[in-house]
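Action item from last meeting closed. Structure (60 res):
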């Protein structure tokens, strides 16, 4: 069974940082790189999905 990501954020850069967005209740900050092949990546801590906006610089 596949579950949907709890939150999806559209971003303009393939390199993103995620800290859970909950201040002290979040998680350690992690830097993620969106693969050009998929155009998205899920945070390994909170499962937030980061999607590279159409037409954004893929940085690759």
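Sequence:
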């Amino acid at each position: 069974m596949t579950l949907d990501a709890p939150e999806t954020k559209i971003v303009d850069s393939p390199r993103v940082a995620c800290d859970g967005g909950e201040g002290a209740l979040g998680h350690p900050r992690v830097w993620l790189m969106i693969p050009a092949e998929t155009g998205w990546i899920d945070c390994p801590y909170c499962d937030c999905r980061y999607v590279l906006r159409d037409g954004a610089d893929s940085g690759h």
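Note appended to the action item: The CA atoms of residues 41 and 55 lie 17 Å apart.
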